[in-house]
Amino acid sequence: MAESTAANGPEADDGRPDLAAMMVPLGRALMAAELPVLRAHGLSMWAYAVLLALGEEPTRSQSALAQAIGADKTRIIGVLDGLQDRGLIERRPDPRDRRVHLLLLTPEGRRLRDAARNGIRRWEDRLLARLADDDREAFLRGLRTLSALPEEEIADPGPAAPPR
Amino acid sequence: MAESTAANGPEADDGRPDLAAMMVPLGRALMAAELPVLRAHGLSMWAYAVLLALGEEPTRSQSALAQAIGADKTRIIGVLDGLQDRGLIERRPDPRDRRVHLLLLTPEGRRLRDAARNGIRRWEDRLLARLADDDREAFLRGLRTLSALPEEEIADPGPAAPPR
DNA sequence: ACATATAGTAAGCGACTGCATATCATCCAT
DNA sequence: ATGGATGATATGCAGTCGCTTACTATATGT
To answer: Name one GO biological process term (chains A, B) (predicted).
Structure first.
């Protein structure tokens, strides 16, 4: 069955490049573009990811946080240290289990997160303005849907056809 | 102006996470999911990227190819060596400038590329089936549009409103 | 109380990447 | 013909990442 398309030209099928082939470089470019904004607020990419994740839900345990932002649990320790030293987050031992740390944003941290996020949001809006008005919302919906999928479902997304 | 949103809850604004914050992990997951498919064809990610890039337009000079797929020019040499040894691509000195190499897929390479691409395409279709029917096309259009933008325009996407 | 398990921390390893340098062949302008 | 650019190549360095191991403090089940 591969042969039918194999016989076609280079722009066979719908000419759509690989999803990952578009997504990965685009992600890289987005990250590169955001970096200066973050640097202006003294944030690294990981630090920003932490602030975003904490803002969305005050997190119990660092491992959970690490998992949530797709980082290694041992690698965010330094990041958390830095944020804590700057008074942007609080590490508070959970009274019910003194092994785990409750992580929460300080008002300061919330302010910085919002400032950085607004800076990035303004840039994103200009970027998204490049999309056709009709596509923009659907694009964002699609992106959110896919990025919310658990990893296993991406690896093996079940049967092919939702009643088309 | 940051304060207006700073006062809101965690899901303030439109609750949209950062673009890069969605795109980068998603890209990683996509890549991870594609890897087994590629491995089954004996291809690395870079090798596959090369095959795709060559398929789309026979490329003059390796630097150009490297740039096209966002790789380091010195790092794809080994990849090209491997592909050439397996008879998947041809490195032919340009008769008009014998310093540069013309890079082209052999029929074999074309076959392998298509086989791998079809495998990936099948998986992608199942994944994209997770999106609402109305969103799917727009999502792909948006993704293609953005990923086709030159890096500079992503870094600085000009004024907010596109001369619609 | 004792054994087992888990959270956070520290340190190191291997792989990959981007970046820089050096070499050689070839081209181009003078 | 000569000098200065350029493409491909080889090599090495530094930074980052994911992963593993080990250690400490704490919790839980027996």
So the answer is: response to stress
Residues of chain A with pLDDT > 90, as a percent, come to 57
Q: How far is A102 from chain B (nearest CA, A)?
A: 17
pLDDT score of B15 more than 80: no
Domains annotated for chain B, with CATH where assigned, are: 22-140 (1.10.10.10)
Dihedral, B55, B57, B58, B61 alpha carbons, nearest 10? -120
C-beta atoms of B16 and A140 within 8 A = yes
On the question of pLDDT at B158 being above 90, the answer is no
Q: How many CB atoms are closer than 10 A to CB A129?
A: 17
ipTM of the predicted structure?
A: 0.79
A154–B contact, CB cutoff 8 A: yes
Contact by Cβ (8 Å): B36, B30: no
CB A47 within 8 A of CB A113: no
> Which residues of chain A from 12 to 31 reach within 8 Å of chain B, CB to CB?
12-13, 16-31
Give the closest of B17, B124, B146 to A19, CB-based: B124
Q: Which of residues 74-113 of A touch B (CB under 8 A)?
A: 110-111
Interface touch A143/B118, C-beta < 8 Å: no
Structure tokens at B160: 């907010």
pLDDT band at B68 (very low <50, low <70, confident <90, very high): confident
B68: left (phi over 0), alpha (psi -120 to 50) or beta: alpha
